[in-house]
Amino acid sequence: MILLSDPYSSAGAVSHSNDWLVLLPMFKNGGFLAPGTISAHDGRWFVPPWGVNGGAPAGRSRKIVEKPDGTMVNHGNKVDAFAVEAGDRSNFITWGGGWGDPLQRASELVAQEITQGLATINGARSYGVVGDDAGRVDVAAIRAQRALMRAARPAELPQFNFRPDIETLHTNRESETRRPVPVQSVWRLHELAE
Fold it and tell me: pLDDT digits over 90-114, tens only?
């Protein structure tokens, strides 16, 4: 099997973070030139990475094989020997949760990320940043947006942001992952003790 790998890329959406750590959804894509098998041993497909110190949780990771006819096959994050054919494309999508209060991130840094293609105008709004594709920011609009966002959230941000809750994860699992519900482990401690 031969994989022709594309460069890493980002979704262009920003996860909440502070000035020294930006965690984005990353894509590692590639096309197969010959048949073979692939393995994936990755986590966070069911419970997304948490946000820390005021940051937001990330999205679920996904591993998808795109067939030449456009069919998308979600092969899951923990799988061995998944068959691929020549012409298939592999899409590994991973995330990291945000770190720190997004409203304290310097708007100039977010604007720079917009011009670099690391953030979109819409993604920048999660930081309360109002700007354009050229990286110009509207300082007055940023102050107003951040004031509205602060007023709508708790005064003290959680150390860990575990959202969404497990019931919501189960409810949205099919539409977001197209994967079956994970099987809960059953521990037979009484048998181990004997």
Answer: 888 877 888 899 999 999 998 998 8
Indicate whether 62 belongs to any domain: yes
Q: Domain for residue 164, yes or no? A: yes
Residue for token pair 């604007």:
111
Domain count, the chain: 1
The answer to whether position 186 is within a domain reads: no
Q: End-to-end alpha-carbon separation of the chain, Å?
A: 48
Domain that holds residue 16: 3-177
Please state the pTM of the whole predicted model.
Answer: 0.68
Place of tokens 């591993």: 63
Q: Is 27 domain-assigned?
A: yes
**Least confident residue range of 121-130, 148-157, 174-183:** 174-183
* Alpha carbon distance 146, 144 (integer Å): 6
